[in-house]
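Morning - adenosine-5'-triphosphate inputs below, output right after.
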Amino acid sequence: MESTPFQVHLRGVVELLSRSIYSGPAVYLRELIQNAADAIAARRDEGYTGGLITITPVGPRSRELIVSDNGIGLDRGEVAELLATVGRSSKRDLLDMPRSDRLGQFGIGLLSCFMIADEIRVLTRSARGGDPVEWLGRADGTFSVRPLSGPEADAVPVGTQVVLAPRADDAPLASEESVLSLARDYAEYLPVQIDVIRADGRATRINETPVFVDPQRRTAEELLDYGRELLGTEPFEAIPLAVPVTGTTGVAYVLPYAPPPGARQASRVYLGGMLLSPALDELLPEWGFFVRCVVNTTGLHPTASREALIDDSALEETRDGLGAALRHWVLQLAATRPATLNRFLAVHHLGLRSVAVHDDELAALILPHLRFETSAGTATLRELAAAHPHLRYAATVDEFRQLAPLARPDAPIVNAGHVYDEPLLRRAQEFLEMVVERADASELMDALAEPPLAEREAVTRLERRADAALADLQCAATVRGFAPPEVPALYVTDQDVLGAQRRRDVAEGAGGLWGGLLSRLDSPAADAPRGKLCLNWNNRLVRTLAGQEQEGAGFTPAVRVLYVQALLAGQHALTRADRGALTEAMGRIVHLAVGLEPGETSA
Ligand SMILES: Nc1ncnc2c1ncn2[C@@H]1O[C@H](COP(=O)(O)OP(=O)(O)OP(=O)(O)O)[C@@H](O)[C@H]1O
């Protein structure tokens, strides 16, 4: 059997590159700069100390774009082998791992030039000696090699020039304006000088110093300057980053605003100084949504497109390292700058809360510092855990509103009615020494002071009479002493009652089929849930009501008005029955005030 080498259909491969691998034809320039930089690095390995890349864009005087370098160059044998063999690269080491000082590794980069031109012409002279060579590759898959001699050869210095004549449609990508902007975007931080030759013949050096490569040695102002450009606004703060195992350094900019929920901030990533991606998702842990990073790395591995990173253990290690830096920042804030921590939490609390619900790392970090509203003012969870290891909470804002007045100051109730609060409070038990439990209205009421034994009889009588006065309103009465004494009564419900009440409100508004259905759901049964009116034994008015020996005509309307007042104070919605009761009770009170019998209406 005869073995035959595979045939490569070059147009098909180029099509594949342009459609499926690269984000667009503009990457041709990145690939050329990268090859030039690698060639200079290779020559520097042999003791050379110079290095310059020159790019001449397409212009009024020439339809050709030229990228020249004074790197290692290629001899005749290397040209045929390296330039014309798809997938062959000089830059992989023996273990097939990318070398940290070389950018290329796949042996396909040069083909990207076919996305804008039908021919690639390479003039090259090896630094190791030998005659220069011209290599001509064509998009139809053929190439030719021509050794140069005489004056033609004398004109070719050590290094390589790549010459492209872009197709008319693609020429704009090789114009001075595009070349300047692409070269800056991709390569302004490369450690090699890059000049763009302008139409007037003058060179513009595009190199800039990357502040994020060595952030520890930069001033805060320098770091913030870059951050301002990156975020388009003043960063909240700049956090220097370093993950030495993967040669990654950079800066995380804390956003001064809350990003949309769930949005992980994409990072700007440079590989060996060359832009890999302006917006890479996978670099940060999920909970790092509150920063936008810029990093340079030498130890992470690009995919063939060079626009993403391979999700391998190096990336995972880097993610962990960056997470650790963010965690350190938060802990430092908590320890040394609590006011800044509070400002940070005020901006990002919703996002932090949403992620801490399911992310252990963030929960452990942030929970102690989260602030909650309680019946005794606001406090952080750490403060609450220290003062009240057994903590009770209300699970809705409604519930909090009605339970808060019942809570003793030494046993406050936490408002866990806002989004994420309840699951976070429950999680707090894993990270802080505390037990949290949902507060129960009747238990709280039981904890309130019972009136003294000597007055029990009067209290029981008052409860019975008030019960009777409220019977048709599905409300029971109870008497306790609580602060402040000016409040005559509180209305207390448990969750079932609140739910039933809400359905009744809807039914009243809905009418028709829906209304009928809902009202049937709640048609008062013997065991129908009842709210409770808790009368305050410390209140003068309540005592006076209790003191009325006879069933005075004012008792029932007074209790019913107290009931409606308590509902309103607790911001409960009034049902139709409640409104009816109020109108009727007020009518009777007005009659009593002017000395008329209830029925006496006509003159
Ligand atoms: N300017 C240059 N100077 C010297 N050699 C070059 C130059 N450009 C390309 N080469 C040689 O041609 C080979 C193939 O280049 P190509 O850009 O296709 O792949 P690569 O750079 O090795 O890898 P990648 O696909 O990751 O870019 C290189 O490995 C290098 O040996």
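Note: The longest strand covers residues 117-125.

O.
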